[in-house]
Amino acid sequence: DTAVSQTPKYLVTQMGNDKSIKCEQNLGHDTMYWYKQDSKKFLKIMFSYNNKELIINETVPNRFSPKSPDKAHLNLHINSLELGDSAVYFCASSRFVGPGNTIYFGEGSWLTVV
Amino acid sequence: ELKVEQNPLFLSMQEGKNYTIYCNYSTTSDRLYWYRQDPGKSLESLFVLLSNGAVKQEGRLMASLDTKARLSTLHITAAVHDLSATYFCAVDYSPQGGSEKLVFGKGTKLTVNP
After folding, report:
1. Which of A61, B2, B43, B99 is deepest in the core (most CB within 10 A)?
2. Would you call A102 and B106 a contact, using CB atoms and an 8 Å cutoff?
3. How does B19-47 read in b/e, with b if 16+ C-beta sit within 10 Å?
């Protein structure tokens, strides 16, 4: 069983569309994250939720809206997609927020905006 | 704001040789992580270093942390082709008034040649 699973794995869409990426973890973790990896492989945190509560919201355009219906799920909805949104989006989870905390990453969702 | 710098960014080495990847960071932290990413794949946790002087070894890889120098190293011993991947260091950072988060370096793309 995949510990952190995201769907879809690949997504090609036109500019201006709205799309969602779903993420589920079966590790019983309290904390979930969205990271973005750009074309130069640079990884940056976007959001972090702990027990369904938003705790980190980096300087991300408000076209990006995370939603956590329960602590095992963290979905990412993106409105009015732009070319610059093309990237790999990784969902991740950890047991808690704090030191010594291994973060487990999903397989990534490859988003291409054309 | 924390900056994490890895060097080199690209490393091509022969099988059987030794080499070290360096990770410098700009702000006090005593928690550092190393991840491996294969092309088109997710990030795999390699090491979690939680204190000054921490050293961890797994197979041909050994990681160390010097919090006073704000430096971590990932040493590769007698490299083999299977180690070819991109290696990321990430520093756990709590900005003043903000929540804890991981800040990643840009990654070191390692190619081990026969």
Report:
1. B43
2. no
3. bebebbbeeebbbbbbbbbeeeebbeebb
For residue range A9-37, list pLDDT tens digits in order.
999 999 999 999 999 999 999 999 999 99
Asked if B48 reaches chain A (Cβ–Cβ under 8 Å), the answer is yes
With tokens 């011993």, the residue in question is B77
d(CA A64, CA A47): 10
A107/B41 CB distance under 8 A:
yes
With beta carbons less than 8 A apart as the criterion, state whether B102 and A103 touch: yes
| pLDDT tens-digit map of B28-80 | 877 899 999 998 889 999 999 988 889 999 999 999 999 999 999 999 999 99
Distance (Å, rounded) from C-alpha B97 to C-alpha B114? Answer: 50
